[in-house]
Amino acid sequence: MKMMRSFFVTVFFLACYMSLVLSFERALVKKAIVVFNVGSNLIHGSLELTQRSPKSFVSISGVIYGLNPNMKQGFHVHESGDVRDGCNSTLSHFNPHQQNHGSPSSYHRHVGDLGNIQVDCNGTAVVNIWYTMISLSGEHSIIGRAFVIHEKEDDLGKGGNEGSLKTGNAGSRVACGIVGISS
């Protein structure tokens, strides 16, 4: 009888554990989308984001049109997806660890520092990159936050002034889109 009760207790805890694991798996976001529909009327496009597991990199791919031709433009994740006042209400770069601004390859940087996107002679940026510091789930989740494109090239924190360490001197916000869960 004792052995039978022990067996049922073990099965019960195993079932609870599996239920917890399955609900956690369902809560993991593996695909997201950003549609650039706020800011300049000329800038439009979308990005698809994928992440296989919470510890893997986030792949970002897509096309953005209507940008300044033949230049690089700052590309960041900002704290908020609030666009009621356009891109200006998206707050600062996503920076939960209160670091200085830096390049995507810097160890010490904002989580939302994604560097620059390269724009071709037609004003189009084809984006196909991956990042390890952002995530679609967990502490560094960017779901509900905003991607922002800036008017100038990001100096990656190497500009030698306070603005560089805060924003990369990337200038005003010309377009943004909210990161949403994708099917």
TrEMBL record:
Domain Superoxide dismutase copper/zinc binding span(s) in chain numbering: 44-179
- Which SUPFAM superfamilies does this one have? Cu,Zn superoxide dismutase-like (SSF49329)
Q: Which CDD domains match?
A: Cu-Zn_Superoxide_Dismutase (cd00305)
Q: Which UniProt keywords apply?
A: Antioxidant, Copper, Disulfide bond, Metal-binding, Oxidoreductase, Signal, Zinc
Give the cofactors, semicolon-separated: Cu cation; Zn(2+)
Could you say which residues form the signal peptide? Answer: 1-23
CC cofactor note: Binds 1 copper ion per subunit.
Reaction(s) catalysed by this chain's protein: 2 superoxide + 2 H(+) = H2O2 + O2
Assigned EC number: 1.15.1.1
- Family membership: Belongs to the Cu-Zn superoxide dismutase family.
Purpose: Destroys radicals which are normally produced within the cells and which are toxic to biological systems.
Name of the protein in its database record: Superoxide dismutase [Cu-Zn]
| Organism, as annotated | Folsomia candida
